[in-house]
Every structure is written in structure tokens, then in C-alpha cells.
Amino acid sequence: MDDLAIRGNIVIPAADLDWSASRSGGPGGQNVNKTSTKVDLRFDLPGNTSLHDAVKARLRKQDGVQLDAEGRLIVVSSVTRSQSANLEDARERLRVMVLEALKRPKARKATKPSRGAKRRRLKAKRQNSEKKKSRQKVDY
């Protein structure tokens, strides 16, 4: 298996990738029972040196990420009836996942309501209070 080029100078070495094939379900008739087309691609996340720790942490926290007992990331593909096509699909899905993890999340800046917003809120509260006071019984 070849190295997986993510973008520019970021490359996942082939030594960090391991894959296995097994029988897959779905369409294919009797061929499904004979051939091993489903691909499980495992990426050695703890042992990888080409990604920063922050990227690895973001990769672990992504939705839909499966990790095994050793912390390796698992990508499963059984979209086609071809083992080689499923392997390429799994590699591409891993590449997209790493690209997403490379994006730094935007830092949230705490904001305060503007002076006008505070004024409008207090004015609305006063109006609501006056409306409810006008509904009360008048005591003569």
C-alpha cells in the first residue's frame, strides 16, 4: 500500500495504515458469499508522527469515528462490489476526515449586549408591566 497524501507536505506513511478484507452484506447475490469485498482500514493514530497532537485529538472527537482498543482509527467501506474500489473509498474517507481535523475551530469571543439592546429590553419590560397593571382591579 502507498503513502496517503493528505495535502501539501502532510503525508500519512503506509506503515501507519493497515487493512483487512471480509465478506460484505448487501446486493451481489451469491457472489457476496464467496468474495471478501468489505474493507476495514485501520490508522495507527497513537503511533503516527506526521500529525500534531491537537489534530489527533480533533480527529478522535469527530462524529462517526470508530476507535479500537489500541486507539487505532477504523474506517469501514463496503459501497462497491470491488475490494480495490472499497480500499480506495476508505482511504479517501480517511483523507477527508484528516482534512476536517486539520481545520482549527474558530475561537468563540464573549460578547455583551449593546447599550441600545439593553434599553430596548428594559423598555419592553416596562411596557409589559404597565399592560399587566392596567388589568388589575382598581381599588377606590
- CATH topology, by name, is Double Stranded RNA Binding Domain
Global mean pLDDT: 90
If helices are DSSP runs of H or I spanning 4 or more residues, what is the number of helices? 4
Give the N-to-C terminal Cα separation.
Answer: 93 Å
Number of domains: 1
**Cα Rg:** 28 Å
* CATH second-level architecture: 2-Layer Sandwich
| Strand content bin | 15-25%
What's the β-strand tally? 6
CATH class: Alpha Beta
| Uncertain parts | none
- Structural class, by secondary structure, is alpha+beta
Cross-sheet strand order for the largest sheet: 3-4-6-5
Sheet of most strands: 4 strands, antiparallel
Give the H and E element order: EEEHEHEEHH
How helical, in percent, are the residues?
Answer: 25-40%
Overall, the morphology is elongated
What does this structure look like?
Helices cover 38% and strands 19% of the residues. With 140 residues, the chain is α+β, with helices and mostly antiparallel strands. The chain has helices at 31-34, 53-61, 83-102, 115-134; strands at residues 4-7, 10-12, 17-22, 38-43, 66-67, 73-77. The strands form 2 sheets. A 4-stranded antiparallel β-sheet has the order 3-4-6-5. Strands 1-2 form a two-stranded antiparallel sheet. Helix 2 packs across helix 3 (83-102). It has a single domain (4-102), classed as Double Stranded RNA Binding Domain, CATH 3.30.160.20. Strand 1 and strand 2 (10-12) form a beta hairpin.
Q: What keyword list fits this structure?
A:
4 helices, about 140 residues, Double Stranded RNA Binding Domain, four-stranded antiparallel sheet, elongated
